Amino acid sequence: MSWTEERVEVLKKLWAEGHSASQIAKQLGGVTRNAVIGKVHRLGLSGRATPSRPVKRPPRLARPKPRIRPDGVSPATETNLDETRIRRSDQDAIVSALQPAPVADGEAATILTLRDSMCKWPIGDPADPKFAFCGRKSDCGPYCSEHAKVAFQPQRKRDRKRNDDEAYARRIAG
DNA sequence: CCCTGATTCGC
DNA sequence: GCGAATCAGG
């Protein structure tokens, strides 16, 4: 999306009305709040009033520049792809753990709406357009309390009594 | 954690 | 000119 004359007008208007950069970005669509802020500065209309922020920062020095490489591989992602890959046997375990799980109740998050504080339990086939995440409030970890139970099944002796399992589930559930 | 604007600089 | 990454702060 480019800064057409209309879009700039909308930007000016909303900015003058006191909307935040992210609000303006959302309304315009196709731009991030960074883009909006950048444009605001280029238009020379930064700092409307003083939102109670004296902010005198010593001039920022040259950015250390850990930018992503031209090949598109982020430095952090570059190594240890092996650790991310799921082995076949683990897949089977995950799939079986998944069986009782996909709670279809209420809200599921998409990759776009999933927040850090939301349960990241996958629901459905990742290849499916309808693939989603559980999305309920996560409970200390990446999952909601319900999914945490099945996600973090410990290794245990097969011939233990069910009582032990229930005690364990109660303990990790808080 | 969520958010805000400000700045730098590779593109 | 553009905007992601980063910073500094609420």
List the helices and strands and how they pair.
Elements: H1 5-16, H2 21-28, H3 33-42, H4 81-84, H5 88-98, E1 122-123, E2 132-133, H6 145-151, H7 162-172
Helix pairs in contact: 2-3
The structure holds a DNA duplex (11 and 10 nucleotides).
Strand arrangement in the largest pleated sheet: 1-2
Say how many strands there are: 2
What's the mean pLDDT score? 70
Question: What global shape is seen?
Answer: elongated
Radius of gyration in whole Å, from Cα? 24 Å
Structural class: mainly alpha
How would you characterize the overall build of this protein?
It comes from Henriciella mobilis. 36% of the residues lie in helices and 2% in strands. The protein is mostly helical. It has two domains: 38 residues; 87 residues, no CATH class. About 14% of the residues have low confidence. The structure holds a DNA duplex (11 and 10 nucleotides).
Write out key terms for the chains shown.
GcrA cell cycle regulator, mainly alpha, DNA-binding, 174 residues, 2 domains, 7 helices, 36% helix
